[in-house]
Prior knowledge:
alpha/beta, 10 helices, two-stranded antiparallel sheet, 10 strands, TIM Barrel
Amino acid sequence: xxxxxxxxxxxxxxxxxxxxxxxxxxxxxxxxxxxxxxxxxxxxxxxxxxxxxxxxxxxxxxxxxxxxxxxxxxxxxxxxxxxxxxxxxxxxxxxxxxxxxxxxxxxxxxxxxxxxxxxxxxxxxxxxxxxxxxxxxxxxxxxxxxxxxxxxxxxxxxxxxxxxxxxxxxxxxxxxxxxxxxxxxxxxxxxxxxxxxxxxxxxxxxxxxxxxxxxxxxxxxxxxxxxxxxxxxxxxxxxxxxxxxxxxxxxxxxxxxxxxxxxxxxxxxxxxxxxxxxxxxxxxxxxxxxxxxxxxxxxxxxxxxxxxxxxxxxxxxxxxxxxxxxxxxxxxxxxxxx
Length: 338
């Protein structure tokens, strides 16, 4: 346990939670990372460095659970590739699987509480312990979006959903503790905007704070959110997007999380800005300054061509990359050597 809490102390100190007041020294800029599709390998990580000219300190990837009763290979190769690239891995652990027809099937909290996944959790936790290096597990991210409805069926996503999510989260963490996987840190990571919205859509139960599993189960506070700019139109996409600043996107959720646990490190695990509708380089610069004021520990860019091409690319984003490459002296020590 000693290594776990020393690492947490390092996180808290570098996030500014126990640092001198703002007037005594300038705020540190946050460490930078990337989120990638699939299981990252050495080629993927080399490509990111070639595209951006930056070495990420965090690398986020996504991993579904297996169907009930089935096994799943531990992502040892991906973790090793991230470690070899000098970064700390972040597993976005999604309690769902694809059925034989390729449809997403959410794993219900009752399945976990009945023990159907005890073997999987124990095996995964033991593999994390054997790997022996720090990693972050972002379990059931963006739980305040109906898109995911972790722990309950889609038609049951309602007032009972937050409690179901809490039970799942706690049971997963307890499994890791029983296995002695002390270097696995757990992140609680809601989306910047709840959907359905507590006020606009008459869903007062769907506040991010309602899902919080408790201080004893959460090591890191996380946030996800995107500036869609002018990339989405009602005729084609069904909704009209607009340019939003980083502070506008994340400010309300950051305040909500700080009220919950002001002593825990804060990380933006997914963000990016569209190019259409504004100045992407300026958005990046303002985002860094806002996070410095907030003393956020790190932020992760979604380096994926998905709904739109969010990637930072040398030809299109010379200005944004220049901003990111500008001196970041405070960020280096935030994480221990991977």
